[in-house]
Amino acid sequence: MKQFQSWYENHHQYCKDWKARTGGKIVGYMCTYVPEEILYAAGILPTRVLGSHEPHDVTEPHIFGMYCPFCRDVLAQGLKKRYDYIDGLTISQSCLHIRQAFTSWQMHLPLEWSYYLPMPHHVQSPRAVPFLREELVSFKKSVEEWTGKEITDEALDHAIDVYNTNRRLMRQIYELRKAENPPITGLEAMYMVVSSQFVDKADHNKELERVLQNIDGRLADREVGTRLMIIGSENDDVAFMSMAESVGATFVTDDHCTGSRYFWNEAPQDADRLNALAIRYVERPRCPTKDWPERSRIPHLLSMAKEWGVEGVILIQQKFCDPHELDIPAIKKAFEEIDIPTLFLEFDVTTPVGPFRIRVEAFLEMIRGEDLF
Amino acid sequence: MTQEYWRWKENNWKSADKDWTKAEIVTAGIDVGSVSSQAVILADGELYAYASMRTGSNSPDSALNAITAAMEGTGLTLDKIHYIVGTGYGRVNVPFAHKAITEIACHARGANFMGGNKVRTILDMGGQDCKGIHCDEKGKVLNFLMNDKCAAGTGRGMEVMADLLSVPIAEVGPMSLEVKEDPPPVSSTCVVFAKSEAMSLLKQGWPKNKVLAAYCSAMAHRVVTLLERIGVEKEFFITGGIAKNIGVVSRIEKELGIKAIKSEYDSQIAGALGAALFGKALVEKGGKKK
């Protein structure tokens, strides 16, 4: 389990070592709608580009002040040359903020290859799968032209298998969090999922299997406290998770693109591999940029909360994240209707631990209804 | 030395007729806020003594300073207090407290004591933040909302304005009500912007009372928008230092169309009072009693 944290803390070193070890190419991706399997099948390591949670001002000339802190933090990492080992960069259409980080990166930093994938927004349309399939054909072709190698069906099958295994194993671990004493904390789950976004999935799978072998009875003595779920935009804010779990709570599940949304569903079996991938990405738990006209996410969130025995929900959004902001009132209302209270917090590059702590503690006091009266 | 107009008066009070030595349970609440620290001592759940002091750079010292001022002349010592609850921004740094409880819970409990069990919506206007709280008839929190990362609508903002205009802080409210009609408010989203606007108004020749009216209106509007996000019930109570500023309170009441419930107690002690009441409940429920 410590391995995930160590990977998280040494993201860049892991990638550099991987490159030295394999001689392969590394592609940074900026959104989890990117079909990593195609890159992996080409022998490329996809690595998610994340922020560093440090205050900085290098993005000021390049990106609007009212764009979300995450996309600014991501671009800052590029400008500070922290991803100087990546050979290419890609993004799938999700929101305009992160897309500006992508275009600015293309403009200011050297890249052998870059690709903007028009992932359809209207994923609820029956035309979304054929649309995406055709886009994946172009994406695959572009990767092949860049590397000079054909991506075979066998390679795709292998990549899909490795990725599906990763999803299945993480899902298995999430299932165990339904227990009265979850064997892993929310912080550990975050390290696990976020590290899976840049570690070679074959390495990650081995570690997941090791963890699963030794998970029985793990954290049996830890005080669980209030069972929380955290929902919202990109979140790898380990300082926040750690603080919240230190004041009498445990995150038992989540809905983040750095959490369950990333790995929840597998690619189906299909002789047409790109069609299988199109189905997988169209049907995955949705990001609010794509979840319309129905809010299909809400029934999923509510049933997850019931199954995982959630007592309170923390709703977070990166400041200025309009898609999440638009969904939050509806999500809040849906939870209140089933008597699960919610707490809304707005995240920024750095974590204001003190002000967040008071909110979280007061929220927990409210839920626990301690014998103070 | 030039006068510091923001300096509100530190104070303490003790009951003239109560005697802690006759009480079965003596509890205390210490509220270490960002600007002020209060200590409240209860003898069998009744208000016995309190103090309201400025918070220094060190929370443990501020807590000790407040409780020492509250105990002054009573013969009480820390070891004679059965249970001490710390609250406020520095709640986890009160070394002699038995438990820390958030100021949100404590303000709701304190308001329930001060304004009676009819109180349902509480506005706490503190030194560096501002909260809207809903509670039940016992003073238990049902919902709450806090302002984010901004000093507008807080005591610190008012202190800045008092200093700028050279008006002692206690006179700000009454002076702001001298105007016949409220001028347009200054910025309600940022103290720094509000201060620059106030400076330019002064340069334009506005009298102090008019500038203060513009600032008090802005502050009232600011907290009303916070309250409207959470909803306001007519059983409404205001706690915290700004509750003493009639210029802000009357404008909030006007904007909401609701009169705040009046209380005989000092609005600043609500948090510490709630903490001390929780202390008493904890002793009765089998907690620590020396």
Automatic annotation (TrEMBL), chain A:
**Which GO molecular function annotations are given, in alphabetical order?**
hydro-lyase activity; iron-sulfur cluster binding; metal ion binding
Keywords attached to this Swiss-Prot or TrEMBL record, sorted alphabetically, are: Iron, Iron-sulfur, Metal-binding
Tell me the InterPro entries matching this sequence.
Benzoyl-CoA_Rdtase_bzd_nsu (IPR017603), FldB/FldC_alpha/beta (IPR010327)
Output the superkingdom of the source species: Bacteria
Keyword Iron part of the UniProt annotation: yes
Q: Per its Swiss-Prot or TrEMBL entry, what cofactor is needed?
A: [4Fe-4S] cluster
Q: Which family does it belong to?
A: Belongs to the FldB/FldC dehydratase alpha/beta subunit family.
Q: Enumerate the NCBIfam families for this protein.
A: benz_CoA_bzdN
UniProt-recorded name of the protein: Benzoyl-CoA reductase subunit C
Automatic annotation (TrEMBL), chain B:
* Gene Ontology molecular-function annotations: iron-sulfur cluster binding; metal ion binding
UniProtKB keywords: Iron, Iron-sulfur, Metal-binding
Which cofactor(s) does the record list? Answer: [4Fe-4S] cluster
Domain ATPase BadF/BadG/BcrA/BcrD type: residue ranges: 29-279
Give one Pfam hit by family name.
BcrAD_BadFG
The answer to whether UniProt assigns keyword Iron-sulfur to this entry is yes
Q: Does the keyword Secreted apply?
A: no
The family database entries (Gene3D superfamilies) matched by this protein are listed as:
3.30.420.40
In terms of NCBIfam families, this protein maps to: benz_CoA_bzdQ, CoA_E_activ
What's this protein's name? Benzoyl-CoA reductase (2-electron) alpha subunit
